[in-house]
Write a sequence for this structure.
DNA sequence: CTGCATCCAGAGCGATACTG
DNA sequence: CAGTATCGCTCTGGATGCAG
């Protein structure tokens, strides 16, 4: 997890964000890990069982899905409901907090979609320039 | 870097985001790393020299700042200008693409700021519940 | 001042096997 | 079906030292 000094930003980041960059980073550490966003996106469709989720995401290990879900549950973004049946059944569902996270994440996703070509081109150019040394 | 299967999402993530979750993840891998967002935020104030940037951020190693800046430069988010003086001077500055990234990142930052208390409380509750086993 | 190279500890994560 | 435990690899990232 991140832990930053309280570096006071004088300017003010486009005049909007308070100088609590540590907070932003902390949340980004949660959101930025390998599977969190995928899980949140998948759960947007509604409650889902463990293996359904696993199949949807595709190439996630059972271990990592469990860990990611535990983390999200701990942060209050996902709720976990156990049905004491046999075989056991566990449903995962976004909490209101988790659903509210979708708004900024979707915004980021739209930025990603809109600018992916530009980024790929920039990368190609950069790599090409680095080859003729 | 992430590399996901092309898992087609039928539902559609709140009906907004296309089923290109891979793209989102790829960008998140860039944005989600430890220093990227901090650097972008700092550069929001305007062009900055290497050490000025380093001092602003505070507890970043020289190595990681260099690596982060190279990555951002490669992705076309930051431009690097060398002044062939002595001692050498290098200015880093957000490109238009980099500046456009601020919008969604600031949105995420505002979400973080608004919901940090809720998340911390959720964590406390979760940890407390786990203690009385 | 800037920025590479090296070394090294630790985190992240996948594969596998096992339990209720 | 859901979850835990263990192993081992890779990658991150911090510290240090050297060079233009």
């Amino acid at each position: 997890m991140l832990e930053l000094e309280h570096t006071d930003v004088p300017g003010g980041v486009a005049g909007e964000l308070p100088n609590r960059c540590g907070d932003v980073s902390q949340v980004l550490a949660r959101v930025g890990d390998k599977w969190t966003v995928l899980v949140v996106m998948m759960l947007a469709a509604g409650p889902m069982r463990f293996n359904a989720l696993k199949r949807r995401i595709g190439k996630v290990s059972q271990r990592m899905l469990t860990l990611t879900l535990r983390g999200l549950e701990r942060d209050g973004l996902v709720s976990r409901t156990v049905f004491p049946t046999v075989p056991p059944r566990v449903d995962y569902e976004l909490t209101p907090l988790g659903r509210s996270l979708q708004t900024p994440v979707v915004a980021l996703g739209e930025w990603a979609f809109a600018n992916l070509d530009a980024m790929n081109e920039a990368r190609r150019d950069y790599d090409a320039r680095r080859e003729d040394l």
